[in-house]
Amino acid sequence: MKCLVILQESRATIKVDGEYAFGYAKSEVGVHRLVRISPFDSNKRRHTSFAAVAVIPIQGDGSTRVQINESDLRIDRFRSGGAGGQSVNKTESAIRIVHIPTGITVTCQNERSQHMNKASAMAVLQSRLDQLERARQAQMNAEHTQSLTDISWGNQIRTYVMHPYRMVKDLRTNFEVSDPDSVLDGDIDGFILSYLSASLDKDEDDR
């Protein structure tokens, strides 16, 4: 996987690219607690810090379109008609397309050929599906952001202790290691896998 880190005044944004990136990274969502001797305290006292992690999937760039499968479409052909029942075209050039998974229906009879009406209807359907997908992504992002609890003691999912002993423990799975330096350097595979395993077991129990 590849990571891009952008540092700001009180936050950092990390973009992770790779197979199943979101599935792995979502295990880090929540509040993380660090206990250490602060390097900024001349009296060498122990301090506790908190950081909240949110993970938001990026579904491609703004130009990405929803893929439309022909098997998901029902296409009806019929004769187009004008105002007052006046015939616009004596052939079945009008097109009605139903996107079965969403129920979105688009009808086009403005053009004089079936091919042109179908192309116009598909363009409208594509636009509506793209709009629906953008709304779904926005809702998903909002839910991920709202899932964060207060950034304070008692709400943490994982604790990193540098003093008086050395340990990192995930409070959701009880998985722990005694080398916080390696974890802070990015060795979090054990935490990710234990979380995914626990989530899978929970899903099985809920069925």
UniProtKB/TrEMBL annotation:
Keywords: Protein biosynthesis. InterPro entries: PCRF, Pep_chain_release_fac_I, Pep_chain_release_fac_I_sf. Pfam families: PCRF (PF03462), RF-1 (PF00472). Residues 79-95 form the Prokaryotic-type class I peptide chain release factors domain. One of its GO terms (cellular component) is cytoplasm. GO terms for molecular function: translation release factor activity. Signal peptide: none annotated. Belongs to the prokaryotic/mitochondrial release factor family. This is Prokaryotic-type class I peptide chain release factors domain-containing protein. It comes from Punica granatum (Pomegranate).
